[in-house]
């Protein structure tokens, strides 16, 4: 019987509920390290996990052994628990419902890693909202703007 071979890179993006700026710089890196460990524990190979005050980017080599929706749900659940158990956030912390997932090829890998690791600098000139809609359009994802995210300024 022949073996199966695969190389699937996924880029997942999700936000803090209402896009609140709750991911404080003092503990953000610890959270991202925890999330990378969660990916690894689930059999995926994390390549870059980073974000900014209101959102997270996960880029990893996907093992194709679990549904993406299950993976995202479990990463959100465990990271929410991590934040709570370590008293990292002064207010109630929740992730926004939903996420975006994009597939990338091997040749794009280094570009995506650099982009994700440069989030703090990137967001000094561009909002997450602009970034998110730009990604959806770049990857030609069909969407209805009113269903994308609840942005705090829209409430």
Short characterization:
The protein is an alpha+beta fold and 155 residues long.
What is the radius of gyration computed over CA atoms, rounded to a whole number of angstroms?
A: 16 Å
Order of adjacent strands in the largest pleated sheet: 2-3-1-4
CATH architecture assignment: 2-Layer Sandwich
CATH first level? Alpha Beta
Q: Supply the helix-strand structural class.
A: alpha+beta
- Average pLDDT, to the nearest integer? 88
CA distance, first residue to last residue: 57 Å
Q: Catalogue the unreliable spans.
A: none
Question: How many helix segments?
Answer: 5
The dominant shape is globular
Main pleated-sheet profile: 4 strands, antiparallel
CATH homologous superfamily - what is it? Transposase IS200-like
Question: What is the β-strand count?
Answer: 4
- Percent of residues in helices comes to 25-40%
Strand content: 15-25%
């Amino acid at each position: 019987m022949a073996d199966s071979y695969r190389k699937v890179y996924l880029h997942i993006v999700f936000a803090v509920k209402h896009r609140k700026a709750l991911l404080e710089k003092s503990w953000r890196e610890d959270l991202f390290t925890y999330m990378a460990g969660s990916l690894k524990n689930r059999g995926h190979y994390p390549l870059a996990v980073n974000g900014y005050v209101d959102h997270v980017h996960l880029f990893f080599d996907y093992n194709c052994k679990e549904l993406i929706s299950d993976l995202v749900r479990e990463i959100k659940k465990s990271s929410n628990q991590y934040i709570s158990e370590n008293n990292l956030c002064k207010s109630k912390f929740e992730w926004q419902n939903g996420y975006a997932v994009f597939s990338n090829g091997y040749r794009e890998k280094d570009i995506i890693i650099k982009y994700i690791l440069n989030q703090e600098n990137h967001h000094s000139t561009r909002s997450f909202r602009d970034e998110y809609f730009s990604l959806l359009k770049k990857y030609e994802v069909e969407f209805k703007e009113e269903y994308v995210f609840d942005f705090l300024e829209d409430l």
